[in-house]
């Protein structure tokens, strides 16, 4: 396993080598394809995990719409970047 991880790191370094920070987004799809291979996705994202994830995320948004989040209304949540990031972080932790 160490060898394959080392090869992956080398491929990613090659893709990103001598790239200015402003151009890194151009290589993001290639890097993503190297990291999230079909094998990794099939192993990690089975049907049960996907349905649970959708359920958690949709329930979080339904709850936020109905009663807000941490004492803030949905409108306040949309406008306050820090609260929004905290909300997404909380949702991410439950998935």
Automatic annotation (TrEMBL):
UniProt superkingdom: Bacteria
Protein name per Swiss-Prot or TrEMBL: Uncharacterized protein
Organism encoding this protein: Paranoxybacillus vitaminiphilus
Lineage: Bacteria, Bacillati, Bacillota, Bacilli, Bacillales
């Amino acid at each position: 396993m160490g060898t394959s991880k080392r090869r992956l790191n080398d491929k990613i370094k090659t893709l990103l080598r001598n790239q200015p920070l402003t151009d890194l987004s151009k290589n993001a799809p290639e890097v993503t394809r190297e990291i999230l291979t079909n094998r990794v996705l099939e192993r990690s994202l089975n049907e049960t995990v996907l349905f649970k994830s959708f359920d958690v995320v949709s329930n979080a948004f339904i709850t936020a719409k109905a009663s807000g989040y941490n004492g803030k209304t949905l409108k306040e949540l949309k406008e306050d970047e820090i609260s929004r990031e905290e909300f997404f972080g909380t949702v991410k932790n439950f998935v």
